[in-house]
């Protein structure tokens, strides 16, 4: 089993030690202690990777934590994977709605711009 110091993990995953300590405070990591030194294992590294990936795709920290807690290799992680798929579908639906909202806003901006241009043209004439 691999062992990592906080600086090793921070460097390898391109995050700050402070971020790692934050995830530990949130109960998502549980390093061993050697005096004042934190010693992280392979599971902690995988957990950090999952947190960072979840954040990149827009999951909240609570959603990341929920998925991590569902980790159960004895069952093939089926519940975790099914939950992950459901969350992906939810996130995709949110993004699709945001795209529609953006397109609608752009149309409203176009209309406002046209009205402003017409009003400026009318005052210049």
From TrEMBL:
<dbReference type="Pfam" id="PF13411">
    <property type="entry name" value="MerR_1"/>
</dbReference>
<keyword id="KW-0175">Coiled coil</keyword>
<dbReference type="InterPro" id="IPR000551">
    <property type="entry name" value="MerR-type_HTH_dom"/>
</dbReference>
<dbReference type="InterPro" id="IPR009061">
    <property type="entry name" value="DNA-bd_dom_put_sf"/>
</dbReference>
<dbReference type="InterPro" id="IPR047057">
    <property type="entry name" value="MerR_fam"/>
</dbReference>
<feature type="coiled-coil region">
    <location>
        <begin position="78"/>
        <end position="122"/>
    </location>
</feature>
<keyword id="KW-0238">DNA-binding</keyword>
<dbReference type="GO" id="GO:0003677">
    <property type="term" value="F:DNA binding"/>
</dbReference>
<dbReference type="GO" id="GO:0003700">
    <property type="term" value="F:DNA-binding transcription factor activity"/>
</dbReference>
<protein>
    <submittedName>
        <fullName>Transcriptional regulator, MerR family</fullName>
    </submittedName>
</protein>
<feature type="domain" description="HTH merR-type">
    <location>
        <begin position="3"/>
        <end position="70"/>
    </location>
</feature>
